[in-house]
Amino acid sequence: MDASLALAVSVPLIGGLLATALPKRAQGLGLLASVATVLVVGWVMAGVWQQGSLHAELGGWAAPLGIALAADGLSAALLGMAALVALGVGIYASGYFRSADADRHFWPLWLLLWAALNGLLLAADLFNIYVTLELLGLTAAALGALTGTVDAVRANLRYLLVGLLGSMTYLLGVALVYTSYGTLDLGLLSNALEPGPVAATALVLMTAGLALKAALFPLHFWLPPAHANAPAPVSAALSALVVKAAFYLILRLWLDVFAPVVTPSAAGLMGMLGALAVIWGSWRALRAERLKLLAAYSTVAQIGYLCLFLPLLQALPPGAERDDLFVALVLMALTHGLAKAGLFLAAGLVQRSAGHDRIDDLGGTAQHMPATTFTIALAGTALIGLPPSGSFVGKWILMTSALESGQWWWILVIAIGTLLAAAYVFRVLSRAFNLEPTPRSFVTQARTEVPALLLALTSVAVLGLAADPLWRLLGAGGGA
Amino acid sequence: MSLETLLPAAIVVSSLLPGVFIFLVKEESHILRGVLNMAGALIKLVLVGVMIWGVYQGETYETRLTLAPGLDLVLSADALSVLFVTLSTVLWLVTTVYAIGYLEHSPNRSRFFGFFSLCVSATVGIALAGNLLSFVIFYEMLTLATYPLVAHRGTPDATRGAKIYLAYTMSGGVLLLVGAIWLQAITGPVDFTQGGYLEALSGDLQGPLVAIFVLLLAGLGIKAAIVPLHGWLPQSMVAPAPVSALLHAVAVVKAGAFGIVRVVYDVYGIGLADRLGLLTLLGVLASTTIIYGSVRALYQDGLKKRLAYSTVSQVSYIALGASILGPIATIGGMVHLVHQGIMKITLFFCAGNYAETLGVHKVSEMDGVGRRMPLTTLAFTVGALGMIGIPPIAGFVSKWYLGLGAVEADAHWVLLILAASSLLNAGYFLPILYRAWFRPEPDAWPKERPSKGRFETMGALLWPPVVTAGLCLIAGLLAAAPFSPLEWAALIARREYL
User: Fold this and answer.
1) Which of B68, B73, B133 sits opposite A324 (nearest CB)?
2) Phi/psi of residue B196, nearest 5 degrees
């Protein structure tokens, strides 16, 4: 029984409840709960680092009856990334919201979302995953509509409905599994599972539902308006974390539980969709008129990159090479999470300072805010996949595997995606050079600018140059 | 943790760290910024001095950081990297002094000097990169760090030039990346090895090896401005003079040429490159570029543009040297890496002085500048004559060895190229010298700055070109002295042809 797993879910939950009960202290309580959650997540990660994986049954009831929580390298890595992003978002939010009302509504929902996310990453059975997934979708849509504008409400209502459709489809798959195998526990299930039409149908249903939530091309249509219209701290969390959570589940199912069912052609199809997502998402990002819309489309492209790993993981035999590729996949996901959070937070500052986020009219604003422009540049480096970011290492390994498994055509996709990403990132950055007067200092509002900068910097310097421990974290208990 | 493992990293960090702090310096604190700049440059110089001595003694320095299993970031020092590191470090110091003077009253200096330092850190990283992965990493960082310098002025022209620069270099970066990954997929992780490390691969890989070379060459050739990939270079002339100086002499163009040298000698090995027919390809491209650049330079009236096309032409001497099989040509190419750098930076400093002091931007406005600015024009003359290849200036030494190497390798056509190029060089430099010294001064200069002090222009602008012109003379006169660029190039050649 490891208490850290239960605490990782309950600490933000309790924080959220307290913030609801004492709305006037919401901000203070929220920040306190954030710090506490980060510490607990650190504890979980330390446990996984030492023992490889952790397992806990709530209330002492064993698997088929009670609620079980489990953590392996994959969930620990994502948990850690989520904690960093959430801490940054929290500090940023404490300086971002102008109206006390928005601040008061933000914290309970936000902590609830974090609790749901941690629950999802730690859940050890398919039904709990459903519950946390639903909770995540609900809180995310509510947070997204926080600005209260017509556009935001409309986009997030659509987001909510799409999310419900997604989780319903997923639930259908879960029901199918339960009727044929009588268990929902991931561990028991992966032992019991036999390739066959039932398992295949269940996987297709669950994957379809999750792909909708992960905004995998061509099911991405709801994402750009929802992410672009949410308040900046929320957009950051939606793009960096919520979408990733759905993708995490796809990974869990494809590589872990349902691995015997997956065929090369199915994995190839995922890769194909990923390739289309890379090209289409990057192209739309390049054509986007608004900065936040650009960031949202870039998320579509980045999810595509993650899907490119699936056919290659399928093609490689188990061994060191496949493990490397799997870690590279996680590294890309982590890098993207941190970079995208930084980008959205920075975009929010630009929008607030300029009163809009139309890229072509950004002119002076970008030059006035050196720290924010830097954040965009660093995040952009990671999104393009340039060194020294974590996604450069990830891409290097991805391209090597593509060559070694003879599927060289993915390299073309990556090369085109890289150039398109460079084009859309520098389209924004070039606005920072003009004839406006020189800004007096690097940072103007530390509370919002520094978290954004640090998140982006982590995605570049830390994940790019010091990602080696990730191999140990994942190698010890990785799903691969 | 010892000196051997820390020194290469320290050399990179000695400009990286000041760069990061400079971004945070308030715009009006020029003293603090100047101190950071100069401290970084001087510390780097000392560290490089230690490294030169060590490498000469046969000491090895290596910093290794594992990015992922099988992917190491390696910084190591061999004779070739020391040559390039020393060039970058010395010229960075001089250029920093010049830039502080040049940008005295202009806006956004913290941003400028921050990226300036990052740019040098990336260049030094390229020089010290111990394998292809590390080379690619610093090569891309160089692109990122120079973009803001080209765009620095913020005028529509600058933005446009920077965009073109980026489009070229990013595409080049992707080609280089694909080539590097392909090669590494074949060989596994291997560090640069003197004499190359592909020799052992069997004959059935010939096709891929040629294809990879073409990819690498295209990626490197864009920065090295090899025709027809040179289109960005004249466009990026909108950058401030110190940037142009550094870009042309040390950083971007030279990084590309240095990369070609690395790939030919330390990846493929010159013997293998010759057998695969790659040297012929390189030689033809380099010769075309040499002639084309010089011809285009003839027709430029803008002084900086003329110098830019001259760079296109001159940098390809380095590639030409690498394309001829034989130690003497190798020496010629390697030594030109240094000689072109000190001569070209002198010329760009002088061009900047004319523009800043008198408002003279065009060759046609240069009548009589020699009388108004004698020291600057003297430095310019040394640089220009060196470029033509007149003894005893450095450029002569390069051309002499290239020519000797060509004869030794029975590649007599190279002599024709050298002769034609020298004639063309004379054709576009001598008229400038004639105007400057022998034509009468105009009644008024286009935009003269009120001068203060005893000299023709402010000291921070005047002394850097005088110093580098002096270096051009010393490198030529004392070519046979120990630790001269020539002797060092000979050391490299000895180690490559072991």
Assistant:
1) B68
2) 90, 160
* Residue of B170, B187, B190, B238 best to disrupt the A interface, most CBs of A under 10 A: B170
Q: Is residue B309 part of a domain?
A: no
Using a CB-CB cut-off of 8 Å, the residues of chain B touching A430 are: 151, 159, 162-163
Residue B431 resides in a domain: yes
Query: Is B17 domain-assigned?
Result: no
Give tens-digit pLDDT for B82-94. Answer: 999 999 999 999 9
Does the distance separating the beta carbons of A387 and B178 come in below 8 Å?
A: no
Is B90 domain-assigned?
no
> pLDDT tens digit string along A274-312?
999 999 999 999 999 999 999 999 999 999 999 999 999
- Whole-angstrom Cα distance, residue B480 to residue B124? 26
- Convert the pLDDT of each residue in A380-409 to its tens digit: 999 999 988 999 999 999 999 999 888 999
Q: Read off the tokens for B373.
A: 């600015």
Q: Is B26 on the interface with A (CB under 8 A)?
A: yes
Give the confidence band of A477 by pLDDT, cuts at 50, 70, 90: very low
Which residues 118-147 of chain B have a CB within 8 Å of chain A? 133, 136-138, 140-141, 144, 147
pLDDT score at A63: 58
Angle, in degrees to the nearest 10, between helices B327-353 and B394-408: 150
Supply the range of the domain harboring residue B475.
Answer: 314-498
Residues A294 and A285: their CA atoms lie apart, in Å, by 4
Interface membership of A392 toward B (CB under 8 Å) = yes
Q: What is the pTM of this model?
A: 0.94
Q: Do B174 and A415 touch (CB under 8 A)?
A: yes
User: Using one digit for the tens of pLDDT, what is the confidence trace for A339-392?
Assistant: 999 999 999 999 888 888 888 888 777 678 889 999 999 999 999 999 889 999
* B185 has a chain A CB within 8 A of its CB: yes
Nearest CB partner across the interface for A435, out of B144, B147, B155: B155
Which parts of chain B sit beneath pLDDT 50?
Answer: none
Query: Is residue A321 within 8 angstroms of chain B, CB to CB?
Result: no
* Nearest CA-CA partner of A16 in A113, A102, A88, A94: A113
Return the pLDDT at A125.
Answer: 87
Cβ separation B67–A419 shorter than 8 A = no
CA-to-CA distance for B316 and B223, rounded, in angstroms? Answer: 11
- Residue percentage of chain A with pLDDT more than 70: 96
Write the secondary structure of chain A as one string of H (helix), E (strand) and C (coil). Answer: CCHHHHHHHHHHHHHHHHHHHCHHHHHHHHHHHHHHHHHHHHHHHHHHHHHCCEEEEHHHCCCCCCCEEEECHHHHHHHHHHHHHHHHHHHHHHHHCCCHHHHHHHHHHHHHHHHHHHHHHHECEHHHHHHHHHHHHHHHHHHHHHHCCHHHHHHHHHHHHHHHHHHHHHHHHHHHHHHHHCCCEHHHHHHHCCCCHHHHHHHHHHHHHHHHHHCCCCCCCCHHHHHHHCCHHHHHHHHHHHHHHHHHHHHHHHHHHCCCCCCHHHHHHHHHHHHHHHHHHHHHHHHCCEHHHHHHHHHHHHHHHHHHHHHHHHHCCCCHHHHHHHHHHHHHHHHHHHHHHHHHHHHHHHHHHHCCCEHHHCHHHHHHCHHHHHHHHHHHHHHHCCCCCHHHHHHHHHHHHHHHCCCCHHHHHHHHHHHHHHHHHHHHHHHHCCCCCCCCCCCCCHHHHHHHHHHHHHHHHHHHHCCHHHHHHHHHHCCC
Pairs across A and B, CB distance < 8 A: 102
Please give the span between the terminal C-alpha atoms of chain A, in angstroms, as a whole number.
Answer: 25
What's the pLDDT at B30?
85
Q: Compute the distance between CA of residue A131 and CA of residue A135 in angstroms, rounded to an integer.
A: 6
